[in-house]
Design a protein that fits this description.
single chain; 68 residues; alpha+beta; three-stranded antiparallel sheet
């Protein structure tokens, strides 16, 4: 579904997805075509902090997953 939305606005795809709940939030970040990073966090943690941490984690995981 998100791929179709991306195409509607001229994007190939989205590399991350975020859902906000009343108590918890979920952040999906693409590592590569085979893996995604899923982060669950409560409302006391800012989305910006999660995004920065996700970028760092993906940068560290990508070389390992490419050799797997």
């Amino acid at each position: 579904a998100t791929e179709r939305i991306a195409k509607l606005i001229g994007e190939k795809d989205f590399t991350l997805l975020f859902h906000k709940g009343s108590r918890f939030n979920i952040h999906f970040g693409r590592i590569n075509q085979d893996f995604i990073l899923v982060t669950l966090f409560n409302n006391e943690v800012s989305l910006g902090l999660v995004r920065l941490g996700s970028i760092k984690a993906i940068e560290q995981m990508l070389p390992v997953l490419q050799t797997a």
